[in-house]
Amino acid sequence: MLRFAPSPNGYLHLGHAYSALFTWRAAAEIGGVALLRIEDTDITRCKPEFADAIMEDLAWLGLAWPEPVLYQSERFPIYAAAAERLAALDLVYPCFCSRSEIAAAATARDPDGAPLYPGTCRHLSREQVAERLARGDPVQYRLKSDRAIALAGSRHFRVAEPDVTGPVLERLARPERWGDVVIQRKGTPTSYHLSVVVDDAAQGITHVTRGRDMEAATDFHVLLQALLELPAPIYTFHPLILDREGKKLSKSRSSESLRALRAAGWSADDIRRHLGFA
After folding, report:
1. Span 83-121, pLDDT tens digits
2. Distance between CA 267 and CA 179 in Å, rounded?
3. Which of 2, 90, 136, 185 lies 20 to 30 Å from 19, alpha-carbon distance?
4. Which family does it belong to (predicted)?
5. CATH: 3.55.40.20, 3.40.50.620, 3.40.50.150, 3.90.245.10. Which one for 2-275?
6. What pTM did the predictor assign?
7. In terms of Cα–Cα distance, which of 150, 273, 171, 166 is closest to 209?
8. DSSP letter string over 22-85?
9. Dist. CA 116–CA 105, nearest whole Å
């Protein structure tokens, strides 16, 4: 079982098309099924019209998937329960720091290049935490990574290279590189990291295909899988589609969408040939 899991916060671009086509081809190669999951936990940026557009674009590419489609926004109580399991192990603490405060205090960076959270709020007293929660300060909840790693022990995960039919090798997970990652964000009872491992297990995902930009994040997902006693799939990391400047295509950078290419005269076969899936 495989899955393609876009966020409906914009229109799909060529990078998404490559990932989707890679996933559906992988499912065919191993006699599996490719699911569509809508990762819409960010209720401020995700829109139903974008979810509809995702399905329209994928169908235009010639892809099909089983119904019903899983929408993460309908599963908040399930993610909250998973976070409560972590909290019961004394692995979670509230953080009140803003992005600017973290940037100012950080002395290192995580694998994505973002300021590494220095653990400021781990040192707040119970009284300070209660006071800030009582007055409604914006809060998110972080994992005590050192304690979590000590509890889970050394972990490895399986990687099939260069695709799902390739040899499966084991890699050592290095979640310590990420520090105290956010588990629950303000306004939602989850984060990408928490919801993705919970849903992969719930949907019986056996193989995860994702871009190489997500390779390092897998270290942290493996840690969460161990803590929550969830099965670990086999991972395959595919190349990224880059723009003329050598940068990854991104909605935030207004990369040209599939529907814009379609309006310009591209056919689904043109897209497939351009991405190497003729």
Report:
1. 999 999 999 999 999 999 999 999 999 999 999 999 999
2. 45
3. 185
4. Belongs to the class-I aminoacyl-tRNA synthetase family.
5. 3.40.50.620
6. 0.95
7. 166
8. HHHHHHHHTT--EEEEE----TTT--HHHHHHHHHHHHHTT---PSSPEEGGG-HHHHHHHHHH
9. 9
Domain boundaries, the chain: 2-275
Edge-first strand listing for the sheet containing 156-160: 168-172, 156-160, 234-238, 207-211
pLDDT mean over 137-155:
97
65: nearest Cα among 37, 87, 41, 84: 37
Instruction: Identify the CA nearest to 95 among candidates 132, 44, 43.
Output: 132
pLDDT at 71: 98
Using H for helix, E for strand and C for coil, what is the string for 136-168?
CCCCEEEECHHHHHHHHCCCEEEEECCCCCCCE
Q: What amino acid occupies position 70?
A: L
